[in-house]
Amino acid sequence: MPVRSFAEFWPLYVRAHSRQRTRLLHAIGSVLAVVMLGVAFAVSLWFLIAVPFVGYAFAWYAHMFVEKNRPATFSHPFYSLVADFRMTFLMMAGRMEEEVARYSAVDESEDTTQREAPQVIR
């Protein structure tokens, strides 16, 4: 199902960031990217090259090793960037857990995070 709006994208994004550690790593990367942007304008524009690397390094690490899913950056780069900062601001306001609870209750068949199924121990 193609995503046609940010309103359709947001629930998918929240489910792909269900773990608190993933969200924390994203927030660290987002804040450091903004700091690096400030450094670039204060010191040298050459630092602009580092902005995306700093921001995405934390996020992609979180997707590969914590959440174990595929980053939305590849399929929806603009929505993903906007959602990263929306999530960061909601975390700072203490409201992101509400979003996770709201969208994690959605039918699992709609989940496109490509997460591996957990092993059942009998």
Note down, in words, how this protein is organized.
It is built from five helices and no strands. The protein is mainly alpha-helical and 122 residues long. It has one domain (7-107). The model is unreliable at 116-120 (pLDDT under 50).
Keyword list:
122 residues; mainly alpha; 62% helix
What would you call the structural class? mainly alpha
Number of strands: 0
Q: Shape, please?
A: globular
Number of helices: 5
- What Rg is obtained from the alpha carbons, in whole angstroms? 16 Å
**SSE arrangement, N to C:** HHHHH
Mean pLDDT: 88
Whole-number count of domains: 1
Tell me briefly what this model is:
The chain has 122 residues and is an all-alpha fold. It has one domain (7-107). The chain is 62% helix and 0% strand.
Explain the layout of strands and helices.
Elements: H1 6-15, H2 20-42, H3 50-67, H4 77-92, H5 96-104
Helix pairs in contact: 1-4, 1-5, 2-3, 2-4
